[in-house]
From TrEMBL:
Ranges of Polar residues composition bias in the record: 222-232
GO cellular component, one term: protein-DNA complex
Organism of origin: Roseobacter insulae
Record's protein name: LysR family substrate-binding domain-containing protein
Positions of transmembrane segments: 54-73
GO molecular function, one term: DNA-binding transcription factor activity
Top-level taxon: Bacteria
Ranges where the LysR substrate-binding domain occurs: 49-193
Length: 243
């Protein structure tokens, strides 16, 4: 470096040899480079172990209430230095994002049967419930049979694009010979619960009900407080969120 820069870094005529002022500056820079190199190696190791970096998570809206909050809380307790980026998507978009490596993790409902190259794990098992408004004839029933929704006006999520939660619900209904009357499609769970108490026919009778997974931690609002969840007996269907 002395020959390259034409600068003396070490005073060789003295005993012991010592660094010149320029040499002290170069040594200080060299120490910083070594420290940065060690830090870079440590960061690479932490990233490799999933302890730092960025995690991109796609999730379906219905996973927001029962699953996402406690999953995120638990993850952040274990990996506080990992930044999490959240994107709400439909299940097919989640599949595409995973395949294109735009997403690291997807929370979907139901399981994506087409993604054989990815590992999928169930997060939580849920029973199906019917949400009914005040004045509904089955409001005080403790448990309902799934067949009871046959011919009943229902608020459901759209069946397309597939796979969808509604597809799972309708398959379960079909298995017991029930064919509900879908009178309203909604994109979001909260919308369904807001419309549910307001669902009345032209004669003024409450007729609407909503078939959905059980959400014990669903926040109560002035809009949905009139909606009651009635469990469906024997309907622990595969509607549970998958990771």
């Amino acid at each position: 470096m002395e020959d390259d820069r034409g600068t003396i870094l070490i005073e060789r005529g003295s005993r012991p040899m010592r660094l010149t002022r320029t040499g002290d500056i170069v040594l200080d820079h060299a120490k910083r480079v070594l420290d940065l190199s060690d830090a870079a190696k440590a960061d690479v190791m932490r990233i490799g172990r999933g302890q730092t970096g960025l995690l991109t998570v796609a999730f379906v809206g219905s996973a927001l209430y029962p699953v996402l909050p406690w999953v995120l809380w638990d993850f952040r307790q274990q990996s506080p230095k990992v930044d999490v980026s959240l994107t709400e998507t439909l299940a097919p978009d989640t599949a595409g994002g995973l395949q294109e490596r735009k997403m690291d993790v997807g929370i979907v409902r139901p399981a994506l049967l087409t993604l054989d190259e990815f590992e999928q794990r169930p997060l939580v098992a849920e029973k199906m419930v019917v949400a009914v408004p005040e004045g509904h004839p089955v409001r005080h029933e403790t448990t309902l049979a799934l067949a009871s929704v046959h011919g009943a006006p229902l608020i459901l999520f759209p069946i397309h694009p597939k796979p969808s939660l509604t597809e799972v619900i309708l398959n379960a209904c079909d298995a017991v010979g029930a064919e509900p009357d879908i009178v309203q499609n909604v994109l979001h769970l909260q919308t369904a619960l807001i419309l549910d108490p307001a669902g009345c026919s032209r004669t003024g009778r409450y007729i609407r009900q909503t078939l959905l997974p059980s959400f014990e931690e669903l926040p109560s609002t002035n809009c949905n407080k009139g909606s009651k969840q009635s469990p469906l007996g024997g309907t622990a269907r595969q509607c549970r969120p998958h990771l």
